[in-house]
Amino acid sequence: MVSYLPYAMGRMKLIWGDDTEEYKPERWLDENGEFRKESPFKFTAFQAGPRICLGKEFAYRQMKIFSAVLLCCFEFKLSDETKPVNYRTMITLHIDGGLHVHTFHRHGN
């Protein structure tokens, strides 16, 4: 039997570099600031090959729309910026104790 762990693969320094534990959205952008697709065999959140998730493109579109609307209208800040964010590994990835944020309306909206 051959198996893999997507959670572990998403944090492998061999695949993603020494800064793999850092939150860096820019790692998904090319030199022009455009979204750069990674191989589905490298980024396995939606699986790969003949069993790739049928809803992958819909999920990406939904994330972009949701992010654009929220970031246009609101600003988010952690309630306690000194508190470390720790993950709980389950079937889906949870943040231990939740992620408490304050939300502020952006001025001019």
From TrEMBL:
Select a single GO molecular function from the record's annotations and give it. Answer: heme binding
Which UniProt keywords are present, listed alphabetically? Heme, Iron, Metal-binding, Monooxygenase, Oxidoreductase
Keyword RNA-binding in record: no
**Name of the protein described by the UniProt record:** Cytochrome P450
Q: Where is the signal peptide?
A: none
Q: Which organism is it from?
A: Acer yangbiense
Keyword Iron included in the entry's annotation: yes
* Family designation: Belongs to the cytochrome P450 family.
